[in-house]
Design a protein that fits this description.
The complex is a heterodimer of chains A (785) and B (182).
Chain A (H helix, E strand, L loop, with lengths): L21 H4 L16 E7 L5 E7 L1 H5 L3 E6 H6 L4 E3 L5 E3 L5 E2 L5 E7 L2 H10 L1 E6 L6 H4 L17 E8 L1 H9 L3 E12 L8 E7 L4 E6 L4 H12 L6 E4 L15 H13 L3 E4 L2 H7 L3 E12 L5 E11 L28 E9 L16 H19 L3 H8 L8 E2 L5 E2 L4 H12 L1 H13 L3 E10 L11 E2 L2 E2 L2 E7 L5 E5 L8 H13 L6 E5 L16 H28 L6 E4 L2 E4 L6 E2 L1 H10 L10 E6 L8 E10 L6 E11 L6 H20 L4 E2 L5 E2 L18 E4 L17 H17 L14 H8 L7
Parallel strand pairs in A: 1-14, 12-13, 16-17, 24-25, 31-34
Antiparallel strand pairs in A: 1-7, 2-6, 2-8, 3-7, 4-5, 9-17, 10-15, 11-12, 11-14, 15-16, 18-19, 20-30, 21-22, 23-24, 23-29, 26-27, 27-28, 30-31, 32-33
Helix pairs in contact in A: 10-11, 10-18, 12-13, 14-15, 15-16, 17-18
Chain B lengths: L5 E2 L14 E7 L2 E7 L5 H8 L18 E4 L2 E4 L12 E3 L12 H8 L9 H14 L5 H7 L11 H15 L8
The chains are: A alpha+beta (785), B alpha/beta (182).
Chain lengths: 785, 182
């Protein structure tokens, strides 16, 4: 090693080490829930409703029970007897496990068949006969709120499809500021319903051991501990007898946060039969019945001074929640963190209101790789900034640079009450403009426009809010949203660390090891990370909303620092000095002012079990439950260039430069991978994905034949770059990155498309921007949207 | 080396009882198996449930996602849309057959080195498609790679690093075999 080399530990912070978890995945040795096979295991399949709203007048199970291999059929009436026909949702609503008399969306579970084989269960499910009496269907949330609309949830005291109203901000101040603004713009924006479509669908194996009373469930869940507690509360089973195992998960994106009826039915089936019962949904069931994201109808207004300084923001939104409010939000936030909507700009006044409605659709309000409605907020403000720029006839980059919250204003308190931790928004945008040669692109666009060619450039300068969260405001059903790490150093200096979170592909086995390597001076290769077994991992709220690094990652640091505190005493003992004379420097304990006199963490670890000093307990381990003092606020600036084919209306993303700032970077390779994936999941709703319903509530987009997940062909070669503005309150300055790109990308793409179509006089086009919508614009057809 | 055909017992998880069964003989990753299956048994469930080769995944029911891709007589097929009886007398290769003699294939090694996977669920099918492409064309252009994997969906990676990995694997396969690291 050369004398000037910065001291480092192998696999510490900032190193692109390769992923530990890949060893099993590249060999086909992952352990996903459908790979688990238990002796005596039975299989569950589900009969589903063809109607979006109907009375069930009869369920006949005799033919199903005659199918060879079928052992039982479970209906809502069976569950009702056990008090389990309905289950509570995270938002204090309730959701049917199996219906007793009414179905409320197409593909809803109606009956379940247990059989000794996968195929027999499917045969049995097809043989269940159900008589329905169709009821009026409500699919449009605006119509749902009309006075004479059929009431969907007749079980509620309130005979209306209105679920809740939520508002925040200064209404009268905002009204006055907008009224007094020299310039105002307003726009309706619809963010349609989309589905996370993780490549692995949902499923479980439930096993009630009637002898020991032990209930074990292998389950595709992003939040195993919370599930264990909810199971205990709902079923009355003692919590120590419940074990939730979340094995390898094939993508989550928020879709594996809720408890779906299938999990509960499989559990009941296991209790009933005494056998382990496996339920694995197929893709169509996954797309048609699992919780969805978005479905926000937004009306936004922005005010500005004549010179383009933003003054006020007013937003009114109607949220379509389907037949129940089963949103996966922190309990105090029915509209999630939608009030991050003032974005990267210092609005003095803002007011946001959201109303939620029931419709005959499956439940909504899960994330699609975003921190609780942040995507909806960012899309709105970033579209509105472009609309304002156009109204003012200024370049959208210039308008943003003029308005950004300046770096010296942090910590910055937004008009809607958030305290942003750190940011340098102009730095990120300038970097993106330089990389993509913004000025050159504008010149090229002018030339092309003169020739009648359609090229557009779109910017998005987003601010996220992630890392839920501080316990004074963030809880789920009362459980505070801390997260945890338990770190043990073995006598030979090797480490096992367990966490309350659960990776679904993010690479926690690698990145948590890197944080610990940095804090403990032990190579990442010597650190084993485990998650997803509630019997062994410390309690935590799970992985979603980019919270793992801000919460459990911070807990890793804090647990390691607790270990260092104790280790310092042991090191002092070994070095025969007072603990005050020892300092942790360059990944080892040194005697202050005595070069060369030092002990490594490994030496200390050995001593902790073989030669610990009097007055110090043996062993070397620590647990930390980290309650973050604030949220983290990752940000970035994206620039997208599109070309539009005038003949077909096809949009092609030619270039996309993403400059992200997620604070301190743990593993640059993994961060880039997260951004590539996030950009693709931002591209998807902007250009391809949408789930629609016809007037009868029939789903369109219920299979991969017509729900268009992007392939390698449509998506561009994403270009990424970084700025680094550490979070001042996180132990290593990291902010979380898994969702930034999903949040930031859609407005950049739509801004580019609208920019290309300016010659046709449009201000907005709703997503997904399918070629037919563009074609209509080009041919002066009906209004797009 | 020709191994003896290994008879495998019908998988309880697949046999619904009472129906007709077909006798098949299939070579999987070089090992010959004989088995009795229901004629409707899909190849993917034969591999997963009868042979226990769970590296091949099921991601959809419409032949769109490619998570179940395996090689049938050297060509990539979606094993959720092939019946086990159609594999009778033929050669199947799955992700478990890529590593030979404890050495990762160039495709496996490159997916690892280029961070071409995240959750790992699409990865086996993606690697089988990539392997088939590179066996046909070890030096594909980016457009050829993207076109080859258009039937394999990945929700995590945004494809950029998968494309890089396939390119890198092609280079490895062209390089002289001596001294390669794995």
């Amino acid at each position: 090693m050369s004398a000037d080399a910065t001291p480092h530990v192998k696999g510490g912070l900032g190193q692109s080490i390769l992923r530990k978890e890949d060893a099993r995945f590249i060999r086909g040795k992952g352990n996903y829930v459908d790979d688990v096979k238990l002796p005596g295991m039975l299989y569950l399949d589900i009969t589903r409703s063809p109607y979006a709203h109907a009375k069930i007048t009869a369920i006949r199970t005799d033919k199903a029970l005659k199918v060879p291999g079928v052992l039982a059929v479970i209906t809502g009436k069976d569950l009702e007897a056990a008090g389990l026909a309905w289950m509570p949702t995270l938002m204090s609503d309730k959701q049917m496990v199996l219906p007793v008399d009414t179905v409320m969306y197409q593909a809803q579970e109606v009956a379940a068949v247990v059989a000794d084989s996968r195929y027999a269960a499917a045969d049995g499910a097809a043989a269940v006969e159900v008589d329905y009496e169709p009821l009026p269907v409500v699919v449009d949330p605006f119509k749902a709120l009309e006075p004479n609309a059929p009431v969907i949830r007749t079980d509620r005291a309130e005979k209306s499809n209105h679920i809740w109203h939520w508002e925040t901000g200064d209404k009268s101040g905002t009204d006055a500021a907008l009224g007094g603004s020299a310039v105002t713009v307003s726009q309706d924006l619809y963010i349609p319903r989309i589905h996370v479509s993780s490549m692995e669908t949902c499923g479980c194996i439930a096993h009630m051991d009637s002898v020991s009373g032990r209930f074990t469930i292998w389950m595709t869940t992003q939040a195993p501990h919370a599930i264990r507690t909810v199971f205990a509360l709902v079923t009355g089973l003692p919590e120590q007898n419940i074990r939730v195992i979340s094995p390898d998960i094939g993508g989550g994106f928020g879709g594996k946060v809720p408890v779906y009826p299938g999990y509960v039915i499989a559990s009941v089936a296991s209790i009933k039969t005494g056998h382990p019962v496996k339920w694995i949904e197929d893709r169509s069931e996954n797309l048609q019945a699992d919780s969805f994201a978005r479905d926000y109808h937004i009306h936004a207004e922005v005010g500005a001074t004549a010179d383009g300084t933003v003054t006020a923001l007013r937003v009114k939104t109607l949220a379509d929640h389907g037949y129940t409010d089963a949103a996966a939000n922190p309990s105090k936030f029915p509209a999630g963190l939608f009030h991050i909507i003032t974005g990267s700009y210092p609005f003095a006044k803002a007011f946001v209101e959201v109303d939620a409605a029931y419709t005959n659709k499956p439940p909504g309000g899960i994330a699609y790789r975003c921190s609780f409605r942040v995507t909806e907020a960012v899309y709105t403000i970033e579209r509105m900034m472009d609309i304002l720029a156009h109204k003012l006839n200024v370049d959208p980059a210039e308008l943003r640079l003029k308005n950004f919250i300046p770096p010296e204003a942090f910590p910055y308190k937004s008009a809607l009450g958030w305290t942003y931790d750190s940011g340098n928004y102009a730095g990120a945008l300038r970097k993106a403009m330089e990389i993509i040669d913004y000025a050159g692109l504008r010149r090229e666009q002018a030339e092309k426009r003169a020739r009648g060619e359609l090229m557009g450039i779109g910017i998005s300068s987003f601010t996220e809010i992630v890392g839920a969260g501080p316990s004074q405001t963030f809880d789920i059903l009362g459980i505070k949203m801390f997260d945890s790490a338990e770190v043990r150093i073995h006598p030979t200096g090797k480490v096992i660390a367990r966490f309350g979170t659960k990776s679904q592909g993010q690479g926690h086995e690698t990145t948590y090891a890197q944080i610990l390597a940095e804090e403990l001076g032990i190579p990442a290769d010597d650190i084993r990370v485990e998650e997803g077994d509630t019997d062994t991992a410390p309690y935590g709220l799970g992985t979603y909303a980019s919270r793992s690094t801000p919460t459990a990652g911070a807990a890793a640091s804090m647990a390691a620092r607790k270990i260092r505190e104790k280790a310092q005493k042991i090191a002092a003992h070994l070095l025969e000095v007072s603990p005050d004379d020892v300092e942790w420097k360059d990944y080892a304990f040194h005697v202050k002012g005595v070069p060369g006199k030092s002990k490594t963490m490994q030496e200390v670890a050995f001593a902790a079990y073989t030669n610990h000093p009097k007055g110090v307990e043996a062993g070397l381990e620590a647990v930390d439950y980290y309650d973050p003092p604030n949220m983290t606020y990752p940000f970035g600036s994206y620039i997208c260039v599109v070309d539009i084919d005038k003949e077909t209306g096809q949009v092609k993303v030619r270039r996309f430069v993403a400059v992200d700032d997620c604070g301190t970077i743990i593993n640059p390779m993994i961060v880039d991978g997260q951004i590539h994936g996030g950009l693709t999941m931002g591209f998807a709703p902007a250009l391809l994905e949408e789930i629609q319903y016809d007037a009868d509530g029939n789903i369109h987009g219920g299979t991969f034949m017509d729900y268009l997940v992007p392939t390698a062909v449509e998506t561009p070669n994403w270009e990424t770059a970084k700025t680094v503005t550490p979070s001042p309150h996180h132990p290593i300055g990291a902010k979380g990155v898994g969702e930034s790109a999903t949040v930031g990308a859609p407005p950049a793409i739509v801004n580019a498309i609208v920019d290309a179509l300016r010659p046709y006089g449009i201000e907005h086009i709703d997503i997904p921007v399918h070629p037919w919508k563009v074609w209509q614009v080009l041919h002066g057809g009906e209004k797009p949207g | 080396m020709a191994a003896a055909a290994r008879p495998v017992s019908p998988a309880a998880s697949l046999m619904s009882g009472g129906g007709p069964v077909a006798r098949i003989q299939v070579s999987v990753n070089g090992q010959m198996y004989t088995a009795e299956v229901e004629p409707r048994t899909l190849l993917v469930y034969f591999l997963r449930e009868v042979l226990g080769l769970t590296g091949t995944h099921v991601g959809c029911d419409t032949t769109n996602c490619g998570a179940c891709t395996v090689h049938l007589d050297g060509k990539p097929v979606k094993s959720c849309t092939v019946l086990a009886v159609q594999a009778n007398g033929r050669q199947v290769r799955t992700v478990e057959g890529l590593e030979v003699g404890g050495k990762l294939s160039a495709v496996q090694q490159s997916f690892y080195e280029e961070h071409g996977l995240q959750c790992g669920f699409c990865t086996p099918g993606m690697m089988m498609t990539a392997t088939a492409l590179l066996e046909r064309n070890p030096n594909p252009s980016e457009a050829e790679i993207r076109d080859a994997i258009r039937g394999n969906l990945c929700r995590c990676t945004g494809y950029v690093n998968i494309v890089k990995a396939i390119k890198a694997a092609g280079k490895k396969m062209q390089a002289p075999p001596a001294g390669g690291s794995a």
